[in-house]
Write a structure and sequence with these properties.
Blueprint (H helix, E strand, L loop, with lengths): L3 H11 L7 H6 L2 E8 L5 H13 L8 H4 L3 E7 L11 H9 L13 E9 L3 H7 L2 E9 L3 H4 L8 H12 L6 H8 L9 H20 L8 H4 L27 H23 L6 E6 L1 H7 L1 H16 L7 H6 L7 E6 L10 H11 L1 H6 L6 E6 L7 E7 L2 E9 L6 E4 L9 H8 L33 H9 L5
Parallel strand pairs: 1-4, 1-5, 5-6, 6-7
Antiparallel strand pairs: 2-3, 3-4, 8-9, 9-10
The structure holds guanosine-5'-triphosphate (GTP) and magnesium ion.
């Protein structure tokens, strides 16, 4: 038995010293795979497990090039972009698969990793062409940054009005509201006051996120990175004054910073990162939202529609000009953490995902991009178990609880066959689910003993990889 940590160590030492020869880099095809999702959706775990399972392909039967032996080798190589932080694969993998497995730390910015696959095409083509190398550049970025696209269409006054009305529908934000009542937008800007307001507003966004709400934009407020504390991140929505605002007033300065945020933060992300993506996976913690209740589900639906808007060229003139001639060829919407459900319920979760995207899909078909919805678990932390409870057979999952380390069985509740049973009350603004209760437990990653050639256990990661990359590996 070999632990995956040992395998990863071996790989980490050898491979990145490989230097690419010029001829290789010129003629070898590159696929740029974007991985996004709102905070805690499962991006880091997804990328780590995908890479580990592409290096050790024993658990990837549904990836045709892996099952057929078409992929003959996989290794990490230096990434092409020198200024993007490297995705810290080795640290995340050893967190998930070490002796005391734990979930990786939260990551707060864009990062990149290049995985190179040696592929021997099958049949006649293979005989003629011989083996080739395909580089997969994986780019991890927060979904919140896609939500920011909507800001480009908004004025400061329109944005302020939207946000203040939305805050009324959500938990949290009391501190910010109290501060607003003591704030005169026409008064001269006072920087410490602007910072205190921003602090309170950021706190409100964090509270909303914790309560299961999705759209907590502007995206950089929760994930400021090295912009923390700078003027582009020091603005808040204000009630619009009914008289003209003098120069140098709080309102005018906030308006100016809002415009600077659009120009200096939002646009560069779309220009430098988003516009180069070929394939995209959007990870969604749909189970988390269902557990949080109807309002969180409706908020997720709206956020998904907004996020998917970024993939519909034409929606935003600035973005379509930027993307001329380029498009994302495939978009996968994946409900993550499906190992919280017995497999008998996976199809229902997928149906809910499909329904969540329906509006966005109806409005445009993503300019010909191929789309799919799936339920997956990048790292399976549970096993399935049938339990009898009060004479009823319940399809449960069992795992090690994160808090106590004890084994526990979870019956998450029965997802409805018809997604409308959840989505309609959500749309109508219901405060709680009427008929059912959806539970969730936080499991720790299971201790693994992996056979050589096997990556970490997952659910349908191979199917996801086939959809996203399969055609480029044949
Ligand atoms: N059971 C289970 N839990 C998962 C899985 N993937 C993610 N999780 C849980 O979701 C949490 C967030 O996963 P991450 O991969 O760190 O999510 P992220 O999107 O990178 O989060 P940020 O970096 O904070 O934006 C983990 O700490 C786990 O608790 C999975 O496949 N199965
Ligand atoms: Mg992360």
């Amino acid at each position: 038995m070999v632990r995956i940590g040992d395998i990863a160590d071996g790989i980490g030492r050898g491979v990145e010293t490989f230097s690419a020869s010029v001829s290789e880099t010129f003629f070898e095809p590159v696929v740029r795979l974007g991985v996004t999702g709102l905070s805690r959706a499962g991006k880091t775990v997804f990328i780590t497990s995908l890479v580990a399972n592409l290096m050790e392909r024993g658990r990837m039967p549904q990836l045709r090039a892996a099952a057929s032996g078409g992929i003959t080798a996989a290794y990490l190589r230096p990434q092409p972009d020198d200024t993007i932080p490297r995705f810290d694969y080795e640290t995340h993998l050893s967190a998930l698969t070490g002796t005391a497995p734990h979930w990786p730390e939260s990551t707060r910015a864009v990062s990149e990793l290049r995985l190179s696959l040696k592929v021997r095409p099958s049949g006649l083509i293979g005989a003629v062409r011989g083996p080739r190398t395909v580089h997969v550049d994986i780019v991890d970025y927060p979904g919140e940054w896609l939500l920011d696209l909507a800001l480009l269409d908004k004025t400061y006054s329109g944005w302020s009005a939207d946000i203040l009305s939305r805050m009324g529908q959500r938990p949290g934000g009391d501190g910010f509201r109290v501060m607003l009542t003591e704030t005169d937008p026409t008064a001269e800007l006072d920087e410490p006051h602007a910072q205190a307001l921003t602090g309170a507003y950021t706190e409100a966004l964090k509270e909303a996120r914790l309560a299961g709400f999705s759209d907590c934009s502007p995206g950089r407020f929760l994930l400021p990175g090295d912009l923390a504390g700078s003027p582009v991140l020091t603005f808040v929505p204000l009630p619009e004054p009914d008289r003209p605002t003098p120069r140098g007033s709080l309102w005018r300065e906030m308006e100016r910073r809002f415009e600077a945020y659009k120009r200096e933060v939002v646009k560069p992300f779309f220009r430098d990162h988003f516009s180069r993506i070929d394939r995209q996976v959007v990870l969604v913690d749909a189970l988390g939202a269902i557990h949080a209740g109807p309002r969180a589900v409706e908020d997720l639906r709206l956020a998904m529609t907004e996020i998917l808007g970024a993939f519909r060229p034409g929606r935003n003139p600035w973005l379509s000009a930027l993307l001329t001639g380029r498009k994302v060829e495939k978009i996968l919407f994946a409900a993550t953490k499906a190992d919280h459900l017995h497999h008998t319920q996976h199809a229902r979760l997928t149906a809910i995902m499909q329904e969540l995207m329906r509006d966005a899909r109806r409005r445009a078909d993503f300019a010909g991009a191929d789309t799919a919805a799936m339920s997956i678990a990048a790292l399976r932390a549970t096993v399935e178990e049938m339990r009898t409870h009060e004479g009823e057979e319940l399809a449960c999952v069992r795992g090690k609880l994160l808090e106590t380390g004890r084994q526990a069985a979870l019956y998450p509740g029965e997802l409805p066959e018809d997604p409308a049973v959840l989505l309609e009350p959500a749309r109508e603004g219901a405060a709680a689910w009427l008929e059912a209760d959806y539970n969730i437990m936080h499991f720790a990653p299971a201790e693994l003993t992996l056979r050589p050639g096997e990556g970490p256990p997952h659910i349908r990661l191979d199917k996801a990889a086939e959809f996203l990359l399969g055609d480029r590996l044949r």
